[in-house]
Here is the input.
Amino acid sequence: MERTLLIVKPDGVARGLVGEILTRLENKGVFIVGLRMLRLDEAAARAMYAVHEGRDFYEPLIRYITGGPLVAVIAEGKSVISIVRSLAGPTFGSAAPPGTIRGDLAVSNRYNIVHASDSSESYEREWPIFFDEGGIVELDDARLKWIYDTSTSEII
Here is the structure.
């Protein structure tokens, strides 16, 4: 099983879209194992988006992500990173296809509703900015049989 970080950014929280986004994850069969609402401070925001430092959108991104409360989600499942990224859709809401979170809920190229880790390396760097070990729960394996075929040793 794999984990990923999804953030409902301040625009998504302000617009009341947290429930809609969590529902999309759960409807797909993604398990939510961590959930936290917080306001990110500037130091944490800079750590989160350090890979973009120096780019023209970096300072506006820091203002945006620290501009209001956000909801951080740790999701778990087989191939969950690619699944959540597919659910989120392309970065720019104006170009995201219908059926994706951004395609259905965002029109702005800057205010794009969600962040989703793009790799396991990104997830490992990002999740400690939002959670400590106590903020993540372990799944009851009995839940897995309702999402995956667990009749063999390989989860299918």
